[in-house]
Amino acid sequence: MAFTLYSLMQAALLCVNAIAVLHEERFLKNIGWGTDQGIGGFGEEPGIKSQLMNLVRSVRTVMRVPLIIVNSIAIVLLLLFG
Amino acid sequence: MRCNSALLTGLRPEPYSPPCHPTSCPSHEAPPPPPPPGATQPKRRRECRLQAGRGGADELRGLAQGPPLGLHQQGQSHWLLHCSGQRQTPWLSPRVRGESVLRGLRSCPSPAWRSGPPALLPRKMPAGGVPHCPRHPQSASRHRLRASAVRASRRHLFDDTSSAQSRGYGAHRAPGSLGYPTAPASAQDAFLTDPVSNMAMAYGSSLAAQGKELVDKNIDRFIPVTKLKYYFAVDTLYVGKKLGLLVFPYLHQDWEVQYQQDTPVAPRFDVNAPDLYIPAMAFITYILVAGLALGTQDRFSPDLLGLQASSALAWLTLEVLAILLSLYLVTVNTDLTTIDLVAFLGYKYVGMIGGVLMGLLFGRIGYYLVLGWCCVSIFVFMIRTLRLKILAEAAAEGVPVRGARNQLRMYLTMAVAAAQPLLMYWLTFHLVR
């Protein structure tokens, strides 16, 4: 059972990187997940799709700078220690 | 009308308003005006409904003729001593104890109190002697929207027994060492009677007290210590009952957590409240039992213990993150906090321990039998507990509600509950040969 906390952190870092590289104009708008296409008024229930779009947008906004730092650390550590 | 103001107006003949912390004694404002007769009752949490009007105050006054009022005449300190000797002391931090003595009257049981007029005592008095809010059929089904500000006031409402003694002890040491009256008999006494060293010791102790206050104030920013303390406010009876409930949840009827003025009751007083003691202990026991199991098969090495611990923690973290994500996506308005979730997900370690131990004693047959039983029990337990948290409105009415939103929530509850047996099997099958 080699599922450790370290591998969980690696997987989380890769997932967040994957969300961060989704390009707004070239990709998200084309599949209808752009940030200006999600405003569904002020109704009761946002729905899963708009929640996901909000999540993607907030991850991209919030995690941009910390990801630079964490990725640099990960690259250095992997180069040094394999 | 809330309980506090009822007692205040009923027992004290002169107008007395104790200096009260604003978040813990909201009853000092004017009570809200009664709703117009035609209006529907607003959605409120369950509150203690000890009505002081219309004869309730007379009962309170009648009771006040007995010992509690006599105790008042002897001064507040006696009541404090009386209360602190009880097993269930009032839920107060030492800071507010002096100002909420009358609250202690209500929540602190004494033999004379128990024998008071039966109309005053609420119908269901749990073992802790704490007044149980009578089941109001309307408010029992209400959806609890939890703001984080409410959780901040939790610190005043449960008995924080961990720091009281140390604080009292620390405060008593300094005065005792000052003003040493007798003549110096040795070098140490000479040191103590020297006025400069007296001042130095007083200054040092005040510095230490300030430093401790600073640390106490700031550590709450990083680790929610008072919130965590709520989850460890358990006693042996609660642990026994909860373990029984985890293994046999089929006969338990009432799964709702009791509330006391908008905050849930400490686990010590309600078997339905989540706690972190059992999950933490069960996790550690699981690691040890895993080491034992590996040892009996000659597969043990010390770093395997760390690997097991890390693996179990990683699965727990993954589960918590997955459930938080799905709760966010389904936009469930729930008062299920992260720590609550960790507590609920940690209950499966109990079943895992049982399964592995039986597997050690009786081989694979015993392992499968006990694990199967514990899996079904945990499944039922999780469904019944989470149903009240995630599906609050639907569950309370008891009707299987259709509609896309509630169906989605039901699926989420079932998925969470179904993941427990799977993980229980996954984390233990390699330990039993």
Automatic annotation (TrEMBL), chain A:
This is Immediate early response 3-interacting protein 1. One of its GO terms (cellular component) is Golgi membrane. PANTHER family: IMMEDIATE EARLY RESPONSE 3-INTERACTING PROTEIN 1. It is found in: Membrane. The keyword Lipid metabolism does not apply. The chain crosses the membrane at residues 62-81. Residues 1-18 form the signal peptide.
UniProtKB/TrEMBL annotation, chain B:
GO terms for cellular component: COPII-coated ER to Golgi transport vesicle; endoplasmic reticulum membrane; endoplasmic reticulum-Golgi intermediate compartment; Golgi membrane. Its main location: endoplasmic reticulum. Residues 1-46 are annotated as: Disordered. InterPro entries: Yif1_fam. It comes from the Eukaryota. It is a multi-pass membrane protein. The keyword Protein biosynthesis does not apply. It is found in: Endoplasmic reticulum membrane; Golgi apparatus membrane. Residues 29-39 have a biased composition (Pro residues). The chain crosses the membrane at residues 276-295, 307-329, 341-361, 367-387, 408-427. The keyword Phosphoprotein does not apply. One of its GO terms (biological process) is protein transport. Keywords: Endoplasmic reticulum, Golgi apparatus, Membrane, Protein transport, Transmembrane, Transmembrane helix, Transport. PANTHER family: PROTEIN YIF1B, YIP1 INTERACTING FACTOR HOMOLOG YIF1 PROTEIN. Belongs to the YIF1 family. This is Yip1 interacting factor homolog B, membrane trafficking protein. It comes from Oryctolagus cuniculus (Rabbit). The lineage of its organism: Eukaryota, Metazoa, Chordata, Craniata, Vertebrata.
